[in-house]
Amino acid sequence: MSDLFAERSQKAEDLKPLAERLRPKTVGEVIGQGQILDKDAPLGAMLASGKLGSVVFWGPPGVGKTTLARVLAGNMNLHFEQISAIFSGVADLKKCFKSAKLRAASGLGTLLFVDEIHRFNKAQQDGFLPYMEDGTILLIGATTENPSFELNAALLSRTQVMILTRLSEADLVQLMARAEQELGHRLALTPSSRQAMVSMADGDGRALLNLIEQVAGWKTVADLEPQDLIARLARRVAIYDKSGDEHYNLISALHKSVRGSDPDASLYWLSRMLEGGEDPRYLARRILRMAIEDIGLADPQAQIHCVHAWETYERLGSPEGELALAQAVIYLALAPKSNAGYSAYKAARIVAKTSGSIPPPKHVLNAPTDLMKDQGYGHGYNYDHDAEDGFSGQNYFPDALNRQIFYQPVERGFERDLDKRLQYFNNLRRKRHPET
């Protein structure tokens, strides 16, 4: 009878997904994440001290957030309770807190693991606070979104955010070896096919195990080459959330690559976003912004080039129109850079905001009525076209405000010529109006 029970138990175990069968039971079995698990790292230090505080795990899918929470519960002898913010509401939370209270009364602590914790609204997040503070629960939250934006300040102040990273190729190779040991046989793959599978997993351990499960079920005569493997497996789309954290990370990488005059890196990040399904119109807007913010008057044609690229996309659509955006990115990356105009504008806005409502000097005001003429409007204005060189050099700032210097062109591109013009007018102004 015992043999029959053992056989049934083994069959039940074999029916579990490979990811579940390989889920680590101890910290030592966890693959990767040394940046938080090493003895001198935040979580490693907590475990060594025997005191674990509430934590938020932030990282992409498939890197072990749920697994770590389970391991921590076992390590600290706590009851493990798991909920998902996607499927749970206030009633579910109240039920969890009530059960945790009863356990605490009998001397058993509760580790409450909340998956997708950023999905809870502010009021729901605040609901955790009293139970965290009185020790009813130890909260472990998991999120794929930036906690700084998605979690309220009160909850963040009571937790430590720990960042989990994509698994490295070495981590994934180790995971593959562990999977083959669990399966009891090696996968029918050539070395290059193994590398291809690791690349397809894209740093996601769960995705790799799912791929391994598919391959393990195939009956093959010889080891599969990469082209055979790719033909049999559905292509895995790279992680890209058009409204999430990765969206902002990639557009930041594109913008900084353009600013850094690297056309190849710029094209790579542009392509990553397009491959991920980003709206080319969003990219067109951001590319135009790059021209205005980082190139400006160092190359006035850059802005025009971007507008034309945007218009070209609107006329051609995808995929042909995307080539125009790619060419605009190349142009911007290789254009001379200047943020002088951008900096001047921001500085002028600050002075305008802080200088109050002081009026313009009266000599620049129009005087369409006799009353306004009697008040001195327009008196003393010098019409610039009457000057021999077309420049009067008058002061146009308010009388109560010292002359300001906002625009300081750089010695690059077309701004080199603008700087010469600026110096020319400044010299004339000093000669004709030394007091300014």
Task: Provide structural commentary.
With 436 residues, this protein is mainly alpha-helical. Helices cover 54% and strands 6% of the residues. It has 22 helices and 5 strands. The chain has helices spanning 2-15, 18-21, 34-37, 42-49, 65-75, 90-105, 122-126, 129-133, 147-150, 153-157, 169-183, 191-201, 205-216, 226-232, 245-259, 263-275, 280-295, 301-316, 320-334, 340-354, 370-374, 415-432; strands at 55-58, 79-84, 110-115, 138-143, 160-163. Strands 2-3-4-1-5 form a 5-stranded parallel β-sheet, with helices on both faces. β2 (79-84), α6 (90-105) and β3 (110-115) form a beta-alpha-beta unit. The longest helix is centred in the C-terminal third of the chain and has 18 residues, at 415-432. The chain is elongated and about 95 Å long.
Topology:
Layout: H1 2-15, H2 18-21, H3 34-37, H4 42-49, E1 55-58, H5 65-75, E2 79-84, H6 90-105, E3 110-115, H7 122-126, H8 129-133, E4 138-143, H9 147-150, H10 153-157, E5 160-163, H11 169-183, H12 191-201, H13 205-216, H14 226-232, H15 245-259, H16 263-275, H17 280-295, H18 301-316, H19 320-334, H20 340-354, H21 370-374, H22 415-432
Parallel strand pairs: 1-4, 1-5, 2-3, 3-4
Helix pairs in contact: 11-13, 12-13, 12-14, 15-16, 15-17, 16-19, 17-18, 17-19, 18-19
Brief overview, please?
It is built from 22 helices and five strands.
